[in-house]
Design goal:
This protein has about 260 residues and is of the alpha+beta class. It folds into two domains: about 35 residues, no CATH class; about 210 residues, Deoxyribonuclease I, Chain A (4-Layer Sandwich), CATH 3.60.10. It contains five helices and nine strands, in the order βββαββαβααββαβ. GO terms for molecular function: inositol hexakisphosphate 3-phosphatase activity.
Length: about 260
């Protein structure tokens, strides 16, 4: 669970019991947590939040001066999920679909050891390891990975190749949702397609710039993409409402069962 205390100095500042020492950044248990809303009945969910980071196959934890950072004890206690990784079956009138929901830590706010960058990488990689059968039962198709990866495949901080690998996974489809607002607010030095951006942050050096960090990735098996987009008009009342609501913009994908 987000912001659950672990009893260790998890950020290496020599103190415990502070917001950065919680399982995910937070001042109290549940601070900054996520929720999943559905108009259709939800079945028994599987919570992968109790997986230790070190137990993910291929995990890479931070080191400083050749030693575990911030300590071996902290690494033995740290869970992988900063907020949550849920496998949630949903019963729709047309059949069941499994939602694999998560919110990963931003790959910033750390030091040269790249603690958050490495954790973000492995929080995203968890889904591929799950689909490979490395973490217990494989979710049945059709399914969709949904949530906040906090990683752009082309711009910004982080291990961007990790996001590119997930988007290129043959078991998934990238609907590539676009918006007029993303295109209209493109950053001058941007490498990726600004129409795909889902977050409107300050331009460098004051911020990371606009990035694609929110995703809906349906399974190739069992689902077809009818349409997709990002609620980010270039101007108008809805654009103002979206800007006041959050730096993130709503990603939507219309899916049909094949």
């Amino acid at each position: 669970m987000r912001a659950c205390p672990r009893g260790h100095d998890l950020d290496g500042d020599g103190r415990t019991g502070r917001a950065r020492d919680a399982q995910g950044y937070g001042r109290f248990t549940g601070d900054g947590a996520m929720a999943l809303l559905s108009r259709h009945p939800i079945g028994a969910a599987r919570d992968l939040g109790d997986l230790l980071w070190r137990d993910l196959p291929g995990a890479t934890q931070p080191r400083r001066n050749g030693a575990p950072f911030p300590s071996a004890g902290a690494q033995a206690a740290r869970l992988l999920s900063s907020t949550g990784h849920w496998v949630v079956p949903v019963k729709t009138p047309d059949g069941p679909v499994t939602l694999m929901a998560f919110a990963a830590t931003p790959p910033v706010f750390d030091g040269p050891e790249d603690l958050n960058g490495l954790r973000n990488r492995d929080e995203i990689r968890l889904w591929q390891r799950l689909l490979d059968g490395d973490l217990g039962p494989v979710p049945p198709a059709p399914f969709a990975i949904i949530g906040l990866a906090n990683l752009d495949p082309a711009d910004g901080a982080g291990r961007r190749a990790t996001m590119r690998a997930l988007l290129a996974d043959r078991r998934l489809v990238d609907p590539a949702p676009r918006s007029a607002g993303g295109r209209a607010h493109a950053d001058p030095a941007q490498s990726g397609d600004p129409g795909l951006d889902t977050a409107d942050w300050d331009d460098p050096p004051d911020g990371p710039g606009n990035l694609r960090v929110d995703y809906v990735l349906p399974s190739r098996e069992g689902l077809d993409v009818a349409d997709a987009g990002v609620v980010w008009p270039a101007a108008g009342d809805l654009a103002d409402i979206a800007a006041r609501a959050s730096a993130h913009r709503l990603v939507w994908v219309d899916l049909t069962f094949d």
